[in-house]
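Appendix B, Record 12. Input sequence as logged:
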Amino acid sequence: MDLTGDILANNVVNDMMQKDLFSQWLGISIIEIKEGYSKIKMTVRPEMINGFDIVHGGITFSLADSAFAFACNNRNVLSVALDTSINFLKPVQVNDQLVAEAIELHNGRSTGLYHINITNQKNETAAVFKGTCFRTSKSLI
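Logged structural output:
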């Protein structure tokens, strides 16, 4: 494809979302996509709660991981997670509306570094995620 910048970024992420059944199951919707950036949201459902009556950490992690994937792949260079970490700062409850915003800190030829902030409907930070990706030589679309 002969597209550049934010148009390409949006086309890549739309293609990814069509194939990403897990992000669809989470109920993720896209707020904004720009080159090296993504902002997505979801609402926590009852089946996402753990035995402590708060959201399972894997749900928050997965939301952040999807934002990470959309940001690091949207230049149409297949990029895979090399290292990730998350800090849980606030418990998440049923019906909370979470937003994950992925910001690119480094865009290298073979790696990229991203900071993802996860906030709730009160704009409180629920978690902070950091991801490093490895860039392959393959295109996505």
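Helices lie at 5-19, 21-26, 57-73.
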